[in-house]
Each structure stands twice: as C-alpha cells, then as structure tokens.
C-alpha cells in the first residue's frame, strides 16, 4: 500500500484520507508492535524467574491474545481502507460543485467508523489477554512449566 499511496497521481487524491490512517495502523502494528511483543514474550518469563518460559496455560492465553490483536488490527485496517476509498470517491474525485464537504463526507462514513470501533474492541480484548498471559499459572499453581509438560496438557 505504501508504494502505491505515494505515487504522485494517487497521492493527489488520497493524501490525508482514511487510506493514510489505514496504512499507518497496519504498518506500525506489523513493523513495530509485533517485534516488541516478540521481545516481551521472550523476556518477561525470564525476568520473572521462569527461564523455561511461560506455562502451557499461559501460552494458550497468549496465543488467543495474539490472534485477537491480529484479527482486530486487520478489521481496523479494512474498515479504514473502505472508508478511505469511499471518502476519495465522495470528496475528491467529483468536480468542485458536486463533491461533498469534509463534514458531509464524515457523516456518510459513520458505518465504517462503527465497524472500526468494533474491531478496536476486539483488539483491546487481545491486548488484555496478552498481558493476562504473564500472570497465568499452571493447573498445579506453579508459574513455571514442569520439565515434562507438553503442549497437549
């Protein structure tokens, strides 16, 4: 999306639209947030005295959090992309007398923003599950995995 968005003929219409926001959300999540979560997932158990890693139950919660965040972020991006395409079609492509104003366009885009809110709540639930995974204990009450534990347990 980045290469296409900055091509001069495309950028003329799309700059500052919801397409820019969609690109920013997905790029930041993929390039920075995922790397930071990877480092935290590795280092947090070690810093809490569990050099073997998190318990199997904690790993399950962490996976749920991961997928909720990914699904939520993709939903946010798709909602913003659809809103951006519709925004360009309503506000920037028509001739000057037929184009909608910024605020009139925002009224038309409300359903996309409601979808974005829903996916934002899914993302937030994923963040909560991700952080909760750091305090989940084994079924036996231990914070660290047993040497003989398997993922099937």
TrEMBL record:
InterPro entries (alphabetical): Cyt_c_oxase-like_su1_sf, Cyt_C_Oxase_1
Domain of life: Bacteria
Pfam families: COX1 (PF00115)
Ranges that cross the membrane: 20-43, 64-86, 113-137
Record key words, sorted: Membrane, Transmembrane, Transmembrane helix
PANTHER family: CYTOCHROME C OXIDASE SUBUNIT 1, NITRIC OXIDE REDUCTASE SUBUNIT B
Protein name: Uncharacterized protein
Protein's organism: Shewanella glacialipiscicola
